[in-house]
Amino acid sequence: MPLPTLMQKGLSALLNVIKLTDPAVISQAITTLGQHFTLSAYEIAGAYQKSYASALKAIIAGLDKPSIFDPKVKREFAKQIVPNYLQPFAAQQAITDHIELQLFCTDSIAKCQALIPYHQQLFQGEATPLSESELAALITDTHSLSITTLILEQLRSLKVSSLYDDRFVAFLCYNDLLGTAILFFLHEQLRQETRVETTLAALQRQDLWQDVGLMKDSLNQLMTRLDLSPQMKARDELTYHNQDSLKQVSETTIKLKKLPPNHPQYSQLVLMGGSVLSSTGALPEAENLLVQADKMSKNATERALAKFNLFQVKVRRNEFEPALAALQQAIKISPKQYALHDVEKYPIKHILGAGGMGCVFLCQHKLQKKPVVVKCFWEHQKGRAEEVFKEAFAMSELAGKYVPAPLDYGYVDPVKQERAFFVTEYINGAIDGETWLEQQGKLEIKTALQVGLQIAKGLKVAHAAGILHLDLKPANILLKQSVTEDIVVKIIDFGLSQVTTSLSAKMLNSHTTKQLSQFGQAVFGTLNYAAPEQQGFEQYGKPSVKSDVFAFGATLYRLLTHESPRKLNPRRLAQAPELFNLLCDCLEEEPQQRLSIDDIINQLEKLNHKAPSIPLAEKVEKVEKVEKNEWEEELEKLLETTRAKYDVGTYSFPLSNEESASFQNNIPVVCPHCDSLFTTTDEGKLECPQCYLDFEIDDDGDVFYAE
Q1: Within this chain, do residues 20 and 71 fall inside the same structural domain, yes or no?
Q2: Which of 233, 496, 573, 690 is the S-S candidate for 674 at Cβ 3.0 to 4.6 Å?
Q3: How many CA atoms lie within 13 A of 75 on its CB side?
């Protein structure tokens, strides 16, 4: 009698040899199995019977409560039942009532106990060695059915009454629970068999098999030593690697790539490997592993973790759209684990940026229907939210003119005080200093004086209240050009230095010399604005108001020159020598030698009175340039949506008049001025229902102002 498919599949998982395509190598593997794997079908059936019973008992223990007197291997699997199977299954089945869930557990325990006596009828075999064809089938298994499905088919043929309960059957099938449990205990049992141990050792010597246990132990030890975890963190970028750890990561990665994707622990190992690999700076390679882990994940827990780690990798590469897509998928699977803020109250529209403190999202206030900015922190202090964020809210009362209005704050998990977030108003049309430099170029002297005055006055008010910024830089300055008024400045992240320590500060203690990602480079670049006393030079004392003065000088120099403030060049400000001297006085190494905020304000006001005013036409040009950039960005998003909807490319076939009319009448349009979403009219003309701006869309999908 040939080895049953069910038993063949389990052994195939145990003997998961490295992917084989060469017939000669397959023949070599079969020969090795014939020499060492001499278990009879009867012995294999006996191992299966014990594993089947152990699997059901472990499921029962997981649904009830594992006993400290249970064997370690039983407790190891039982503790996975609730988080990896019961909870996500209950969510899928809409079991929200605690009593209903408890009744389901009690009923499932009884049904599992009723299935145990069928172990002998399910697994039978003759006392003869496996034939060559049966051995070959063990390493070339392509059977698509899961072990759970195969077992349930046999139990149904035995007319088992427990299987008339569809919900119980669905639970056993959820993420292949029953089959995974049987394989777990089968592997633990057979690995203690001398003939199996000899077989695996022979396959390993021929580089045809990997010891997954050793690989997992190696990864765990490496992650513990490097302070890493399967769930990636932003600070993993700062991990220090020596030659030994890099060699270990490289060797493990090679082994992971050889591991068959259908191995029961494939996703778990690849997730660990992806986390370790990303800490070396090899983000593309780490991403490839995470994509594989996502594809081959055995349960929702692994799938959600893979998605969240992909978010982390994409953020580090400044690929914000795919980063957001991955994060939202992780949140959809497990919101309690992966939401970085209250996503029910503030649904995410897109990622605005990411830096040393955290990730910033443009969100929609669900009730008020208006855009808001939500900052989520990578790491933060713990404590009552009112205490943690009190400086940020104090700044609103003291210097509301100079900071965005704070709206909300909190923790995703208020009990554990984990995943803090901070909500502020969204200032339409404002862009940060670095974006301004990219879009508009460096500030003119008159504009820079106006910007500098507003920043300095904001600092003065804060310092008078004992509040320091300690992370001032162009990226934390919002600028909005107005036709009728001077440029408007808002300082962001004020009062948040008490909430978290920026990763840029942690970089000072990092000895890493690896190539940093775009995210890491941006974080490292913020050290250009940190005073010596913030960079660990204790001879300069502790950070103080003079630390913000240093950052002020560095920030204004950057905005004036579009160059690094690490070394000031007088030729860049040859037309404004007094302003250059002021900046030099701000950037003195000794804090006591730096200017006071009052001195800065007085000098800037004098220089501002001397500087010629900016012509109105020039202001209009700058405003139009900013609006054009925003308008073109929104238009491109609109066109991408439309092309995807109608499955057309940038250059598509011409439309007939009838098709064109239908096309125009169904295009979703986002107003570039107020972000309102609406559709075209019958004539193809558009009027925003919020700001009443008129424009049209032609047959090519181009938007232009209506005459």
Answers
A1: yes
A2: 690
A3: 7
